[in-house]
Design a protein that fits this description.
By secondary structure, the chain is of the alpha/beta class. The protein has 2 domains: 163 residues, Aspartate Aminotransferase, domain 1 (Alpha-Beta Complex); 248 residues, Aspartate Aminotransferase, domain 2. 39% of the residues lie in helices and 18% in strands. The protein contains 14 helices and 17 strands. A 7-stranded mixed sheet has the order 4-12-11-10-7-5-6, sandwiched between helices. α12 runs parallel beside α14 and α13 crosses α14. It is globular and about 60 Å long. 47% of the residues are buried. The structure holds pyridoxal-5'-phosphate. The site of pyridoxal-5'-phosphate has 15 residues, from α6.
């Protein structure tokens, strides 16, 4: 079948013969996978290789902003791959310039650096902080970056060090020096750390936080904490860095996560949802801390025409289709319904929290059930969910999710919970 014919009729793509044993023989054993193989998708729906349908409230882990096979995104990437997909940053890339301009015009940032993933965007931010500390901030020799406990910043060596969760660091020591951890939403801890770490040529140069902790259990930042934090950073010449890899690009009902907190970061990063599932990462910063010069940092694939065209389309579609409004309405609908479930099963759940279309539902710590038990039961019902730690269910559907789809997800979740209870 020609590509054009396939585009017009995606259901004509044959289900592949999937062999799980063979997969496990050849692919490195780095993921605990659910026992289904996804073959295709459309909107918020996915089909596995057996032809079974699922409602997707994972969205590639908060990544498929426009869902699957969105016609506008399909058209953009199809046209772009026919025209030009990669040339390297040895040359000017018009699509990269256009995307950077859009981001700068729609955020607090003045400049953008492009790469391919969240971890890489955070690595770029860490390098920028260090160069700023060495060259501008009192020629600091030992700059410290404070990050939060239960944070998540990626899987490279520097970003697992930045990640305040020992389980990601275990067996990969020695870690990268220059990171210290504080509890999230705790101002006193920040103040103490800044004082304690100030000696000789060593001091806190930056504080790097998620506006809402995603992997760490869907924990929103507190407005008061962030307002005070901004003040402390200004008074002490400390850079405020936000990891917006999961919460940026409309996920929270605002374009950027920091808009929920009433503060602007000096540096922030984006990746997951930025190109709707095409790999891209970005690090944004204000002019005053833009100390990179040619040769300081680079990425072969970073900002290539294909990824940038896709990202520009995602951002323009969010604007054109008024998706932020949908995110707010569907998020409220979802959380109201999740709260009803919490009230129905008060022994099972303790809390529902989140912003826009990133919501978490916490299981009671005193019962032996884990988030994985519920997620597995939900998948049996045809609803895809992702855990955020052992006790939190995470709901991150595509930003295009409809009212009826949210209702449907709630129905399936209730059935799944009832099944789990019946089994225990
Ligand atoms: C997913 C995530 C990352 C890592 O992104 P990768 O693209 O997997 O490298 C970093 N920070 C946050 C907040 C994330 O959610």
């Amino acid at each position: 079948m020609s590509p054009e014919a396939l585009l017009k009729n995606p259901s004509a793509i044959p289900e592949s013969d999937f062999n799980r044993e063979e997969f496990d023989t050849y692919v490195m054993n780095t993921y605990a996978r659910f026992p289904i193989a996804i073959a295709r998708g459309e909107g918020c729906r996915l089909w596995d290789t057996q032809g079974r349908e699922y409602l997707d409230f994972v969205a590639g882990i908060a990544t498929c902003t426009l869902g699957h096979a969105h016609p506008t995104l399909v058209e953009t990437v199809t046209k772009q791959i026919q025209k030009l997909h990669h040339v390297s940053n040895l040359f000017y890339i018009p699509e990269q310039g256009e995307l950077a301009k859009w981001i700068v015009e729609h955020s607090c940032a003045d400049r953008v650096f492009f790469c391919n993933s969240g971890a890489e965007a955070n690595e770029a931010a860490i390098k920028l902080v260090r160069k700023y500390a060495h060259t501008v901030l009192d020629f600091l020799e030992q700059p410290v970056i404070l990050t939060a406990q239960a944070s998540f910043h990626g899987r490279t060596l520097a970003t697992i060090t930045a990640t305040g969760q020992p389980k990601y660091q275990k067996d990969f020591e020695p870690l990268v020096p220059g990171f210290e951890y504080v509890p999230y939403n705790d101002l006193e801890a920040i103040e103490n750390a800044i004082t304690d770490l100030d000696e000789g040529n060593r001091r806190v140069a930056a504080i790097m936080l998620e506006p809402l902790q995603g992997e760490g259990g869907v924990r929103p930042g507190e407005i008061d904490y962030f307002l005070q934090l901004r003040k402390i950073c200004d008074e002490n010449n400390i850079l405020l860095v936000f990891d917006e890899v999961q919460v940026g690009v409309g996920r929270t009902g605002k374009l950027w996560g920091y808009e929920n907190l009433g503060v602007e970061p000096d540096i922030f990063t984006s990746a997951k949802g930025l190109a709707g599932g095409i790999p891209i990462g970005a690090m944004m910063c204000k002019k005053f801390c833009d100390v990179f010069e040619p040769g300081n940092h680079a990425s072969t694939f970073g900002g290539n025409p294909f990824a940038c065209a896709a990202a520009l389309t995602v951002l323009q579609t969010i604007e054109k289709e008024n998706l932020l409004q949908n995110v707010q309405a569907r998020g409220e609908q979802l959380r109201a319904n999740l709260c009803t479930i919490v009230h129905k099963f008060p022994n099972l759940f303790t809390e529902v929290r989140g912003w826009g279309l990133i919501s978490g539902m916490e299981l009671n710590a005193d019962i032996p059930l884990t988030s994985m038990d519920i997620v597995n039961a939900a998948i049996e019902e045809g609803l895809l969910l992702a855990p955020a730690g052992p006790k939190v269910l995470r709901f991150v559907p595509p930003l295009i999710v409809s009212e009826a789809e949210v209702d449907r997800a709630i129905e399936m979740l209730e059935k799944a919970i009832a099944k789990v209870i019946a089994r225990t």
